[in-house]
Target: DUF3077 domain-containing protein
Amino acid sequence: MLKIVPDPPSSNPSPHHLEDTLIQAAEYVRCALIVAHQSVLVSHPHSLGATLALTAVHEMETVRALLDSALAQVQIPGEPQTRH
Model:
């Protein structure tokens, strides 16, 4: 029997799952950047389309930097705890 309603996400997601999600999101942004760069190359340099594509490139580069920062934070090993 098929479930109609999916299970809710766990309240404490695995950091490895979050890391995988961030990596996948970064790959999608990288692909979108390539497409946007190519659209600028094939359009007239001063056209509205080229301007919009360059704006999209700027925004995606910012998102990529945020994703890289988040990924670095996830990959930092936890601080060692001292025993008393």
